[in-house]
Input
Amino acid sequence: MEKVKVLIIGSGPAGFTAAIYTSRANLSPVLYEGIEPGGQLTTTTEIENFPGYPEGITGTAMMEDLRKQALRFGADVRRGIITDIDLSQRPFKATVDHEHQIEAEAVIVCTGASAKYLGLESEAKYRGMGVSACATCDGFFYRKQDVAVVGGGDTACEEATYLASICKKVYLIVRKNYLRASKAMQERVFNTPNIEVLFEHNTAEVLGDEDGVTGVRVVSTSGVERTLDIMGFFLAIGHHPNVEVLKGQLELDEQGYIKVVPGTSKTSVEGVFAAGDVKDPHYRQAITAAGSGCIAALDCERWLLAQK
Ligand code: NDP
Output
């Protein structure tokens, strides 16, 4: 069985920041990148609000830089998914890709959060055939076409404005009569002429044929039905924390996010720390995730020192 001091699970800004700090502290961290190497930021366009990038930077470029920075200090960054983990006793035992066993003195969980879907049968049927939860990844396929985005938060507004720059028309389907997004994002949406906001509308069915999505049937809260002819249907209705592999082993809050001692990264299990979106239903920014990765690394380093 392989033995490591610090196991980091996840490769978003939290995971890589934890790797940079723990490797500089000579803790020889091993980081498993997980299902989506680089995390959610690799599915975003331009990041304009991360301090230090006056011209902005793409999510992919930022994650590549963070990865290189972690490697520079000796972090062992590996492809692989933690498929099982036992946090009931120390050292903690994890299984990678159902086969490789690893023992860790401390664990930093940075597994992030994943996109939510509406749960319609027709939506599942056309997933990957016009239904997507990532405009940046898939918007390109619908250049000069009509598309729809569901949601009224910052993500939906960001995706709608991005799509509006490459598509002919974007419908923004919002279930309430207002957008929950920040004022700046709302203004961008309202000032983009090829975005039509459909307030108080819900999706009843995604329509399609053997080639993929051809439309969507929406219903207003007053019961008026309408079919939109679109080729791309994008979900932007929030995320759920990726805690499946840890289920039942760490205390979670009522929304399913990992509970930490306020102001720290300490979870309900001594020696297990959490950082990034998996413990943060509120801020969910690259900069806050990176900051919490730093906190987790420092908490972990201090905890390991105290064990001696
Ligand atoms: P949010 O939870 O903020 O918004 C989700 C949106 O989806 C809401 O409008 C919600 O409607 C709607 N929704 C949820 N479920 C359904 C459903 N079943 N059917 C229809 N609509 C639904 O998620 P976001 O991903 O937009 O944002 C998460 C966090 O990340 C926020 O704090 C946000 O500010 C932040 N963020 C910041 C960015 C930036 O600063 N550049 C960019 C992107 C995100 P309702 O309002 O009715 O609940």
In short: The pocket of NDP is lined by residues 49, 118, 150-156, 158, 175-176, 180, 236-239, 284 (CB under 6 Å).
